């Protein structure tokens, strides 16, 4: 039986790992404006992660704060979905990942804003406005690349095909959670479907649906990401500046 | 308290920006509690804002002031006061459209869609012939715009 701590931890880990991946684009994006945009979106994800992990630590009651949860857990203790830990790939893959993540986080945070847990409701009400910008940004690029040149179309379609299987895990039923993600799939499809159609892209068939992130079973990519994210804190525990 | 400015947009006070929610003084102990809220969840200026508030209160004779952070009701650009908008514009930052009546807290918008931006007037030359360069700018709360009339780039505090 998964607890309220597990739920806050899973959402916080989604946001934290997404922030770390998006941050990898800094200084490497296709244009300077995009560099700034991806860094801003990463910062929003980090902000949500800090609130969620702080709350998770309080729910657990074992004295772990946001830093202890972010820096002192190994990959098997992380509860993020597999989608966010996948490598950035090319820019099309990053935009496909961001589209699917934000088309999940936006209805999730919106539903949380009306849930009975006051802390989660406040975090949801705050984060959903930021998510709306993320989703809009990703959809803009998916349309532009999908309905662009033959090469951009080919790569955007390849990105959607590659990432699509990982979207299913986001909506795995979670009975008893403040918001059951299974109920958000309709919102996701209602948004992503038309975006793909406008982008002249084909919605992939549903089939293979890798999962395990919520149980701590990850792809090989997560431990490398954590090594980079945690190395400073682990080398100098408790250091501040 | 009214003199504490935003560390990233130093022309506007935290009260005008709408992130100062309350200042309370305990009648028995005299201890001051200040309540603030962030513009964006990841706003990196919050630690500096807290320190600035404590410093201002210490200088005013309240060295033990407590600064609390709340997230509800969520900040939106509707919380920026008319005076704050005017100061932003004077500093070359195009303010978001005003939808708030003076002296009242804004209604909470659902916030699930990006607010449509119809036209942003250039804060430098006043032209409405402007275009968005990027929805994300130098800080979390700003977007990058440029003016087609005077050719100057400028910041726009985007509607949230």
Describe this structure in words.
The complex is a heterodimer of chains A (241) and B (160). Chain A has one domain (4-205, 214-235): Ferritin, core subunit, four-helix bundle (Ferritin, Up-down Bundle), CATH 1.20.1260. Chain A is an all-alpha fold. In chain A, 48% of the residues are buried. Chain A contains 9 helices and no strands. Chain B has 3 helices and 7 strands; from the N terminus they run αββαβαββββ. The longest helix of chain B has 14 residues, at 46-59. Chain B is elongated, with a radius of gyration of 17 Å. Chain A binds chain B through residues 33-34, 36-37, 39-41, 43-48, 50-51, 106-107, 110, 118, 121-123, 125-130, 132-133, 136-137, and chain B through 38, 40-44, 70-76, 108, 110-114, 133-138, 140, 144, 160.
Task: List its salient traits.
A: 241 residues; mainly alpha; Ferritin; 9 helices; B: alpha/beta; four-stranded mixed sheet; three-stranded mixed sheet; 3 helices; 17% helix; elongated
């Amino acid at each position: 039986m998964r607890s309220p701590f597990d739920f806050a931890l899973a959402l916080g880990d989604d946001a934290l790992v997404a922030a770390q991946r998006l941050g990898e684009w800094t200084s490497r994006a296709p244009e300077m404006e995009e560099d700034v945009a991806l860094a801003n979106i990463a910062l929003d994800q980090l902000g949500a992660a800090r609130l969620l992990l702080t709350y998770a630590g309080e729910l657990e009651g074992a004295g772990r704060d946001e830093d202890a949860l972010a820096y002192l857990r190994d990959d098997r203790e992380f509860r993020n979905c597999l989608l966010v830990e996948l490598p950035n790939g090319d820019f099309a893959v990053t935009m496909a990942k961001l589209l699917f993540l934000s088309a999940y986080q936006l209805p999730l945070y919106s539903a949380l804003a009306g849930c009975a847990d006051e802390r989660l409701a406040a975090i949801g009400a705050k984060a959903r406005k930021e998510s709306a910008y993320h989703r809009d940004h990703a959809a803009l690029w998916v349309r532009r690349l999908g309905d662009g040149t033959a090469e951009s179309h080919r790569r955007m379609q390849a990105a959607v095909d590659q990432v699509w299987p990982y979207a299913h895990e986001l909506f795995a039923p979670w009975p008893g959670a403040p918001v059951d993600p299974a109920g958000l799939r309709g919102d996701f499809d209602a948004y992503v479907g038309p975006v793909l159609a406008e982008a002249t892209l084909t919605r992939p068939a549903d089939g293979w649906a890798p999962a395990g992130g919520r149980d701590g079973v990850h792809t090989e990519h997560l431990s490398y990401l954590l090594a980079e994210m945690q190395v400073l804190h682990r080398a100098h525990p408790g250091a501040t500046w | 308290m009214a003199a504490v400015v935003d560390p990233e947009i130093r022309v506007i006070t935290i009260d005008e920006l709408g992130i100062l929610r309350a200042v309370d003084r305990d009648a028995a102990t005299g201890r001051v509690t200040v309540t603030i809220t962030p513009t964006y969840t990841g706003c990196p200026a919050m630690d500096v804002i807290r320190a600035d508030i404590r410093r201002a209160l210490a200088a005013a004779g309240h060295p033990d002031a407590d600064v609390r952070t709340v997230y509800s009701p969520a900040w939106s650009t509707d919380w920026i006061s008319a005076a704050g908008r005017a100061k932003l514009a004077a500093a070359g930052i195009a303010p978001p459209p005003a939808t708030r009546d003076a002296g009242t807290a804004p209604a909470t918008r659902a916030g699930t869609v990006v607010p449509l931006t119809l036209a942003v007037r250039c804060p430098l030359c006043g032209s409405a012939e402007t275009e968005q360069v990027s929805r994300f700018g130098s800080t979390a709360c700003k977007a990058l715009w440029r003016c087609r009339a005077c050719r100057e780039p400028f910041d726009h505090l985007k509607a949230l």
